[in-house]
Amino acid sequence: xxxxxxxxxxxxxxxxxxxxxxxxxxxxxxxxxxxxxxxxxxxxxxxxxxxxxxxxxxxxxxxxxxxxxxxxxxxxxxxxxxxxxxxxxxxxxxxxxxxxxxxxxxxxxxxxxx
Length: 114
Description:
Helices cover 0% and strands 51% of the residues. It has no helices and 11 strands. Strands 2, 4, 5, 6, 9, 10 and 11 form a 7-stranded mixed sheet that branches. It has a 4-stranded antiparallel sheet with strand order 1-3-8-7, with no helix packed on it. The termini are far apart. The mean pLDDT is 97.
């Protein structure tokens, strides 16, 4: 059974940093491109970042380039999103997804507020 479980969300001040994690199980994690997406209050889903199975290729939406870093530890079946320079517009529920398997986690909420 494919499972994705995000963690690491919370309350952070503008300009602060946070690292999200996503623990994967039930599939061969290293073989799949993984993504982070987010949904802000009252808005639709927004793709944030993606990383290839081996970690050698990464992509970011323009609004997070230079501030967010996606990475993965295939030995631990874990996906990460390091978020620096957080802004109020980053506030959302963040989900990790394996698009090819159609699997989502339950999400972890980021609140950016002073």
